[in-house]
Write a structure and sequence with these properties.
Layout lengths: L4 H15 L5 E2 L8 H26 L7 H28 L2 E2 L3 E2 L11 E2 L11 H19 L9 H24 L4 H5 L7 H19 L12 H20 L7 H27 L6 H15 L8 H23 L9 H19 L20 H31 L6 H6 L1 H6 L4
Parallel strand pairs: 1-4
Antiparallel strand pairs: 2-3
Helix pairs in contact: 2-3, 2-4, 2-8, 3-4, 3-5, 4-5, 4-7, 5-7, 5-13, 7-12, 7-13, 8-9, 8-10, 9-10, 9-11, 10-11, 10-12, 11-12, 12-13
Membrane topology: Multi-pass membrane protein
Subcellular location: Cell membrane; Membrane
Protein name: Ammonium transporter
Length: about 425
């Protein structure tokens, strides 16, 4: 019976496409569409999408040679599954009519209805609503892909697909709604998250820690990276795509996008060089792997702050995040936690550091849309306390919610491969393919 479930799902999707064609037009008077903004957001959407193949290379180069294809596919498959889910009701869950500020109404944009014509989103009035939806889709794609580094080399592919769907529905969508919808509870509370420190990196980081704890250690946790050159290629693609990730979150070709682009690249550079120097201070050789990891940590940490801080403060964010994540990676290696590719120390901790430092360095002179206040650096405490409360609440929700989803998934389909399959390698045992 289980073998027919995928065919049943495809049949349901085909039926929906005929029953609910997206032909309803929404007109909002005379929208102030700006062709420059539309062009930039089209480019940003493509830039963010390329981050997922970049992540596939980044993770794929770090694992054993026998698990490269499996690890990379775990990222790529998010592009196809989450896109379909988003088109049916995922966008509505994140950005539909608010239900008590927690989740969107799945019927609001069901099957992308009402997305054509002059429809716009409140926070992005110069671009079509459909473009806004496609841009946000790319964030929904990469978030569950980030988690895969924590359980690499030991998860059944079929079970992973179930988990990523559940995570997208019950963890990512509520957090996106709470943080980025005008009626979301975190948005109303005054939380600042420019491009996904909370929604993307903290949620993925805490889910990664939950996954590492739930699936327990690999039978053989010692391995040599398959291709460090893959890691370097992945880093370049991630850094390149991150300009769309952060600068695109200004929703226009404007000065704020320029600020976000500048703070993103300077934070990444500062974190990369800090990782190298910090390793050297502790008697280690400056490595390609460390440089790449440091650069990505800087990108993670600046994400929530990119449109709220100045360039000098972005340098500070990059330096601080690199030191903190480096120390947490070192701590993790001395525990029994088998977070295969250190997703929690890099993405989870990096995201949390970025959230807190947004509360330290954010300035209303950089972004006038910041109505919560200035950061601690400017003598105000309110914003920092808001960020701290949000960090605690989101951490609890993402960690324990992910644990629950892992348990549910395990009940539906066992999560771990057998010892023999793990020894064989997931490329062969799960996909019948070899690098």
């Amino acid at each position: 019976m289980k073998r027919y479930i995928p065919f049943l799902i495809i049949l349901i999707i085909l039926t929906l496409t005929f029953v609910f064609p997206s032909v309803e037009f929404k007109n909002s008077g005379h929208p102030n569409f700006n062709t420059g903004d539309i062009a930039w957001m089209l480019m940003s959407t493509a830039l963010v999408l390329i981050m997922t193949p970049g992540l596939a290379f980044f993770y794929g180069g770090m694992v054993n040679k026998k698990n490269v294809i499996s690890t990379m596919l775990q990222s790529i498959v998010c592009m196809v599954i989450i896109t379909v889910l988003w088109g049916i009701f995922g966008f509505s869950l994140a950005f539909g009519d608010s239900f008590h500020g927690i989740i969107g109404n799945p019927a609001t944009f069901f099957m992308m209805k009402g997305m054509l014509g002059n429809a716009t989103w409140k926070a992005a009035p110069t671009i079509p609503l459909l473009l806004f939806a496609m841009y946000q889709l790319k964030f929904a794609i990469i978030t569950p892909a980030l988690i895969t580094g924590a359980f690499a080399e030991r998860i059944r592919f079929n079970s992973y697909i179930i988990f990523l769907v559940l995570f997208s529905i019950f963890i990512f969508s509520p957090l996106a709604h709470c943080t980025w919808h005008p009626d979301g509870i975190l948005a109303k509370f005054g939380v600042l998250d420019f491009a996904g420190g909370t929604v993307v990196h903290m949620s993925a980081g805490w889910a990664a820690l939950a996954s590492a704890l739930y699936l327990k250690r690999r039978n053989d946790a010692n391995h040599a990276p398959a291709r460090i050159t893959y890691v370097m290629i992945g880093t370049g693609l991630l850094w390149f795509g991150w300009f769309g990730f952060n600068a695109g979150s200004a929703f226009g070709a404007n000065a704020l996008a320029v600020t976000a682009l500048a703070t993103s690249t300077t934070a990444s550079a500062a974190a990369g060089v800090t990782w190298i120097f910090f390793d050297m201070l502790r008697g280690r050789k400056p490595s390609a792997m460390g440089t790449c990891i440091g650069a990505v940590v800087g990108l993670v940490a600046i994400t929530p702050a990119a449109g709220f801080v100045s360039v000098p403060h972005s340098l500070a964010i990059g330096i601080i995040s690199a030191v903190v994540s480096n120390l947490v990676v070192e701590w993790r290696t001395r525990t029994s936690i088998d977070d295969t590719l250190d997703v929690f120390p890099c993405h989870g901790v990096g995201g949390m550091v970025g959230m807190l430092l947004t509360g330290v360095f954010a300035s209303q002179h950089v972004n006038a849309n910041n109505t919560t206040g200035n950061g601690l650096f400017f003598g105000e405490t309110h914003l920092f306390l808001v960020q701290l409360v949000a960090l605690v609440c989101v951490s609890i929700f993402a960690f324990f919610g992910s644990l629950l989803l892992l348990k549910i998934t395990d009940m539906i389909s066992p999560l771990r491969v057998s010892a023999a399959e793990e020894e064989m390698g997931l490329d062969i045992s799960q996909h019948g393919e070899r690098l």
